[in-house]
Amino acid sequence: MIDKINKITERIESKIISYRRDFHRYPETGWSEFRTASLVAKRLKDLGYTVKAGREVLKEEDMMGLPSEEELEINWKRALTQGGDPFFMEALKGGFTGVVGILENGSGPVVAMRFDMDALDLAESESTDHRPTREGFASINKGVMHACGHDTHTAAGLGIAEILMELKEHIHGKVKLIFQPAEEGVRGAKAMVTAGVLDDVNFLLGHHISSKWKKGEISPGMGGYFATQKFDAIFKGQAAHAGAKPEEGKNALLSAATAVLNLYAIPEHSKGATRINVGKLTAGTGRNIICDRAHLLIETRGENDRVSDYVFKKAIEILNASAMMYDCRLEIKPMGSARSRESDKELAERVEKIAKEIGAFSFVTQKSEGGCEDITYMMAMVQQNGGLATNIGIGANLSEAIGKEVILRGHTPEFDIDEGSFKYTLKLLTAVAMDIFKGNG
Amino acid sequence: MIDKINKITERIESKIISYRRDFHRYPETGWSEFRTASLVAKRLKDLGYTVKAGREVLKEEDMMGLPSEEELEINWKRALTQGGDPFFMEALKGGFTGVVGILENGSGPVVAMRFDMDALDLAESESTDHRPTREGFASINKGVMHACGHDTHTAAGLGIAEILMELKEHIHGKVKLIFQPAEEGVRGAKAMVTAGVLDDVNFLLGHHISSKWKKGEISPGMGGYFATQKFDAIFKGQAAHAGAKPEEGKNALLSAATAVLNLYAIPEHSKGATRINVGKLTAGTGRNIICDRAHLLIETRGENDRVSDYVFKKAIEILNASAMMYDCRLEIKPMGSARSRESDKELAERVEKIAKEIGAFSFVTQKSEGGCEDITYMMAMVQQNGGLATNIGIGANLSEAIGKEVILRGHTPEFDIDEGSFKYTLKLLTAVAMDIFKGNG
Amino acid sequence: MIDKINKITERIESKIISYRRDFHRYPETGWSEFRTASLVAKRLKDLGYTVKAGREVLKEEDMMGLPSEEELEINWKRALTQGGDPFFMEALKGGFTGVVGILENGSGPVVAMRFDMDALDLAESESTDHRPTREGFASINKGVMHACGHDTHTAAGLGIAEILMELKEHIHGKVKLIFQPAEEGVRGAKAMVTAGVLDDVNFLLGHHISSKWKKGEISPGMGGYFATQKFDAIFKGQAAHAGAKPEEGKNALLSAATAVLNLYAIPEHSKGATRINVGKLTAGTGRNIICDRAHLLIETRGENDRVSDYVFKKAIEILNASAMMYDCRLEIKPMGSARSRESDKELAERVEKIAKEIGAFSFVTQKSEGGCEDITYMMAMVQQNGGLATNIGIGANLSEAIGKEVILRGHTPEFDIDEGSFKYTLKLLTAVAMDIFKGNG
Amino acid sequence: MIDKINKITERIESKIISYRRDFHRYPETGWSEFRTASLVAKRLKDLGYTVKAGREVLKEEDMMGLPSEEELEINWKRALTQGGDPFFMEALKGGFTGVVGILENGSGPVVAMRFDMDALDLAESESTDHRPTREGFASINKGVMHACGHDTHTAAGLGIAEILMELKEHIHGKVKLIFQPAEEGVRGAKAMVTAGVLDDVNFLLGHHISSKWKKGEISPGMGGYFATQKFDAIFKGQAAHAGAKPEEGKNALLSAATAVLNLYAIPEHSKGATRINVGKLTAGTGRNIICDRAHLLIETRGENDRVSDYVFKKAIEILNASAMMYDCRLEIKPMGSARSRESDKELAERVEKIAKEIGAFSFVTQKSEGGCEDITYMMAMVQQNGGLATNIGIGANLSEAIGKEVILRGHTPEFDIDEGSFKYTLKLLTAVAMDIFKGNG
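Predict the joint structure of the above. Result:
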């Protein structure tokens, strides 16, 4: 089986790289992956997958941090001019940019893989030191860039789709390839979970490219993700002339100031570290008008779900009381969230075993870094249903390719990865899936 | 009529002074005027008045700032040993220390007069420069003193009762002599009003002795009283070990601190000056225990009822929100209140006219001083019913009596007044009442 | 003399109206009155006045609320294309848009008049109901409008300049015509005072057109102005990743929130009403970055200088302490200020007398309205030096002109005045000045 | 050597128990151990030790949380009547209740042991279920009780002193027996350290009895102590009548409320858990008086010295800024402090080895519990000088003695220990000391 996988991989490798370069050239931010998702859907359909997209795979009320309708429409139109598939783009309208490809053969376990597709609000480096610029596949969407590697995830997803289709007869069960929007800001996973996409899944594999590790290095079971809630709070009061009629105002700024002080005063929890931050506050209009609107950008974190939920619950209580204090109304807008989750050891060990078989030469044990990932929502659902899940790190440091030591960090204009890492991703994920089917076949 | 009044006054003057000295010797603080009120009731009954006392003239739920049951009982027993009237003291048990004497003859207007009876928590001067000490009628109740002149008001009330009874045949209508407890802290008037004592009153006369003005000076219509609300707020949270289980506490001190900051931040009102103060805060137990109880002493004021009610309402909203913020419960205890009120000009001018007739030699026009008086509750009820009310200032400066310039301020251990002022009080109030009855006779 | 004044006024009236319409068409906001002030200077020079302008009449460090250099330059260039006088515009560069015209004859008192020149950030009504639009002199500077009548003040100033020059031989003393920038936001007067412009003035006359009063109504001595301080406070802290390195941040938002709560808690003053408002707060960048910069727009007011200075001083103390609390730096930028001031009764009575002589038919006594005017800085300097000052209200309601009852309030897009009021302004101010010179001649 | 130690221990065991019962009967709280310390000093002297006491072994400015002079004097006099040694009590006056006994023989390492002597403010159980009550050695000092076992520590110290003196010829170096006052509230150790008592120490042994572990169980190297700072903050402002002169007050309660909110808002530290608590706040006098004094009881903790120092430093900054904000003065009173410290593994292993030799039958590995101990100050000094230190847990659960399962927790009225544990303490500490001397002899 490994041999078969190796052969197909070698055959399609350069095509997958060209996919990646295409996605890189046309980056789209969260909930606006109209071109990307429509091309993914088209390709999956062409390969023979059953394709679900749009409202079938995303529950509207859980789509967090959606851009304005105007922005979505502008981005949709741009996608159309940039070669998005018109048929599938209809289904994605309004930001419903999730796609799932399904391949079924006989009965057996359901193996899902998750690929995130969104880019970042960041202007790509225009230096010729930056290979995408030098080789002509840098972003042409100004101020938007694939600087976190989701272009490689999406392209790898299409490569895996092709390999698995060729191996269809050996599959005993179901493959679900989940292409998720809006991972940045941890906004997109929850709505796919609540839409039911993960309900029947027994095994979940995620992966993330990493420029910290060498090509060929694998971290079979990443973990230590912090749970987080990202949300906006808006106090709405009533304006009044501060000199002439101070008693007529409902001062939203006083509500906001009270909230800020008390939010930071939420007590620590004995069961784990927590964080809270009010990163931004915009309030008021004129100097002598009592402020009638205050808008806060807030984030809570916790090293486990329990303490994260604790600090979020307290924050909401404090915000409500702060609104009441000056007779203001409060609006809370969820803008993103993720869970704290660990990869299952049992599945990670299986990944590690297969990794050796496909020739990945070393294995990194990932420690907690306090970051957040919304695949945790999917892992939580699978684990809750008795399944196993793991998120796999794939080394893709550029040093070997360019002949000098370098770490190009994510979320920077110079970010780049070694495309030679694709073969490891393709081989590893398909081989793990096939190993699962074999065991259950 | 003036002649008759003069004669009776001269006859009884020394008795009234001896009454005053007796009350001065046995001072009792608000809601504990058991001896005073029972002797007043006894005397009114002996004179022939219909006497109402206790629960008949005080509505329990509006009695503000009551001492503890233990303290009331201790004071009640002391009163008994100090010569209180056992019969009437039964009715006064539990702090119901109000008394009303009624004298009716024919039909006609109802003329009420109010006399307050309570003393202060203050240790009287033991210096022989202080006449009560020198002449042996200083307080024997340690730490309690008549330092605001309510002993003179009570004694004058009994003198007026005697004169009016002698003039009974000339009365055409009803006289109500209202002896009120707990004026200090503006605690007692409201409960007499809500018990209905003022419901039928057409004319209300109050008076207050003043050491600022010379004997014989009269202020016929004092006013400019600030409205006020005095109350305690108690936050009840939950204790927890601050180091081991910080998340289990409900921090009453954080609620209190939030409340304090926001109470002082209540906006000014364009219709008049307001004040707020948190005078005292007691919170918590041990250094490392999350505070589970915080007790605040609060007072709001306003130069008119509208702005006073505004600042009080805002304060309650802020306290409620502050409790909610840390999941604490809030208890509000009313401890005193008064209204903003002006004397009726029409009645004050009648007082001024009579004052001249009885030989009071000059007239002070009282300006607002931002103080509070709870006779305002009674004035408000009378005025609201279409009646007239005035509060009269009676000069009683001691300078003439002792032959040197001195102002002995109220609420100090050295406070004293010129007892020669009694005759003005007795003559003026009875003459005004008789003038009213004559007009309606 | 009145006759002479009347004649000249009638002769020049239509020219002054055309000046006004020109200024109205090219409105310029505070510190950008490049065209207006340069044309004023040119006209004064042409009339024979000694002209001072720019840095001679404005002290740089007291020029409050200056726009950015970029904005000043854009406005300067616009003024040039719109017919500003190139010679005088050199002196005004950088916002130094004050002009003073001096006329001296013999020795005698110094009589100053103040005219403010700036427009507002407001888009003028484009309705043909609005006469300036209908008759073609509405603002062509988008978003800028003379909606407070300063265009009429400036034009009146030029008319008065012309009349006085014709009467030069009857002047015994010195005339100073002060054309002030940036009255809106009370920003410009102080810098003219500290530049010494008022140092030798014995009599100061200001005037303000009012759409509330009928044409011909005069308020000879307006007053009751509140003192005010308008300023920005900027807290500068240090950013840090709120999740990873919370201890490295210096949270400017916590400083700001602490400041807001405590600023509103500044106690009332027993000597007069005060106000404080934080109208606007802008703080922070990203949701999970500790806020490193918070910008507050603040205003304090007081019904007299003493209480105004009290609340301002307290505010600065609180801001300093709030900065210290989170190790932030604090920058305070003065953005405007005015004093509390009353017109001198003696001078107002003189104005009233003259008003009758010129045929102004009724007299309004202006009550305090709690507003602010920075002529108060000039009045304070003159009064402090033993001189007399008054600010005169000039009725200019449009009802008579358009034949229906209407009040067009200032600072609205529809504001307009009856140009028939010019003759009253011209006659009254020149007649008062000449009366002063006569008396001292 | 072990044999010798065993024999002496068996001989003196019952005497040591009687010492313990004597100390238990006359408990004394921190800085008032006049009787206890004087008897310790006397006994050490009688045994032949060089004794230092009082100011020789305590630096006055570092003595934290001293009672008032009045209380110290009362306790001193009580100690005299209860059999304190008059000679040594002179040296201890004023709370200087530390004692050090020194035994030197030849040259070699300095081995110190620390014994704490103070009792708690707690009323001992009067139930006959409580052995000290039943057997007549319960506290006769009302409201004071040895409920943490320091009586056993002190008695064990005297037993060890006797054994070591008998083994003097085998000692090659110096023994320092340190009897420390005021461990409760972590108040006493620092002043002994800064007085230089630990400067020459190479090995430090502490021990603490534990009712959680069985008799014979040993924890050779306890650790995980949190660092802590306990202190009082007092804001001193200025009183004023809140209604009449609000501007004259300096509101200490507003400073305190601001401090409370901001203290709880101190950000977490990425290098370890921190805690802060304001356990108690007492502020103000009368309802309508602006508060002029606020007293806060505060405690900070950190799981290591670095984060503990961070949170303490931030707290002081916030308190200073809060005082400044209302022009109050701030006084900080240190009331206790301890360091975070671990026992040295090398020394703990030596203790474990010896423990086996003396027949202690099992070994508990102590985990961190977030508690505080001020022996950490002594450990820090020794470790800083290159020495080794360990704090040893000694099991003393009462279950075996009374024949039923029971855990009598410290700081409760029923606390008691199995006196059969003494022999383990005596043998273990002397054997470890002698082992050190042997190795260095």
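The CA atoms of residues 254 and 326 of chain C lie 7 Å apart.
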